[in-house]
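Design review, sub-item: ligand-bound model
Attendees: FS, YL, KQ
YL presented the inputs for the adenosine-5'-triphosphate complex:
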Amino acid sequence: MATNNDDLFKNLVSHCKEYGFIFQSSEIYDGLSAVYDYGQYGAELKKNIRDYWWKSMVQMHENIVGIDSAIFMHPTTWKASGHIDAFNDPLIDNKDSKKRYRADVLIEDHVSKIESKIDKEVNKAREKFGVSFEEQQFRTTNSRVVENQKKIDAINERFKTGMDASDMNAIRELIIDLEIVCPVSGTRNWTEVRQFNLMFSTQMGSVSEDASTLYLRPETAQGIFVNFLNVQKTGRMKIPFGIAQTGKAFRNEIVARQFIFRMREFEQMEMQFFVKPGTEMEWYQHWKEARIKWHYSLGFPAGKHRFHDHIKLAHYANAACDIEFEFPFGFKELEGIHSRTDFDLKAHETFSGKKLQYFDPELNESYVPYVVETSIGLDRMFLSVMTQAYKEEKLEDGSERVVLNIPVFLAPVKAAILPLVKKDGLPEKAREIIDQLKFDYMCQYDEKDSIGKRYRRQDAIGTPFCITVDHQSLEDNTVTIRYRDTMTQERIAIDRVKNTIESKVSYRETITAS
Ligand code: ATP
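KQ shared the predicted structure:
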């Protein structure tokens, strides 16, 4: 059993492999760094998360539609979007450990350490003063907190100035001044900082003279921008409206060490919401609230999510924040919400020479809409669900079980149908039940090993319902249904099985809450 977060994360990673959720890509060739494959249960869970996002964003909104654009795009797209010139991360190497780091992440981690000191002070004071505690007042008057906050503000200011001016020397100096050491070698023997473009390129065309350089898209958003008018016109969309899509994106990440948190090939779920210029801040607020509610709707305990405002805005944004989730390795970005202004559409107008404007019938004029974007990584969302679901439990009888408390509607397999023994007509009866359920739910048949072992196997993949068929089932058409989370069992008529599952699997209530 894991005793700390590091162990818990290691156990979760092994569990994902052992139970067919995630494998390393091309494992028989020793794998490919930061590229992963989803196994039989992983693919189901991923699909269910994607469906839940799609239903919440597209199906539940009359004014949001979904598309599926190609991964390859005309190379000028990336010139216009700024990715060729500016989609860089600052990298730095430690000369002793030969490990490579993102300079911005080293600085952010340093700031997080100071933030935790502040949080500790605040929590101590909250405990001491109880209900009469005024957090805001404490934060602005307690000398240790004020001093640490000043340190953070000064670091952020220097970082922002350096990044805005693309002054990599200034970023290096900041790392040196903060006395940041390499976590592996423990030394401050750093190289220069240099900018590194994250896009992968490839060639299209068979003869090398004709071939042109293409990029694997680093975000799905540009496929939406270039289709803005196609969708607006064919769908007769009126502003404000949104275009959503899910799909693969590729980034040649400098550091990719945290399992599926940071991959070189990953999947995004993005929605671009087109609004009237001047109303973007209202919509930015609106989507911030809507998206955090969506995360809350999964029923994770309070305090697992938080907002983090960006200090260094991307070249296209006038406001941006992340929704962070508490992964076993700390609070990290799960989703980004960005007010992208009219940067992208205007740039595509300039580079393509085509107008990308909306005629507003109320104003009787045309304008380039502003855009508020919500962008979430499907793989990171998967990791957050697994992190939250994975439990190592000690049971009353002293035994242990590993269970995945995945929200029922997301579970890869909804019901396992288990004949108590593999004879006397019980397997046939079990198959009859599967035949009723399989049109609506992923089901699994299992007759091998003791019933206890089979329950454990289903717990480990997060199956919420185990339906056991025994000799009594042949007499009175009843079965036992066992619930994953409580391990309680009840006897119900076979013709009630489908309704019982239905009432718990439906995400009508969850989606309404989001
Ligand atoms: P980070 O700061 O972690 O590199 P980012 O700010 O570059 O992320 P965005 O460009 O805002 O990320 O991308 C939107 C979302 O896509 C992120 O919130 C994240 O969930 C996901 N994402 C981005 N890069 C990766 C990656 N390398 N692997 C998995 N998911 C990713």
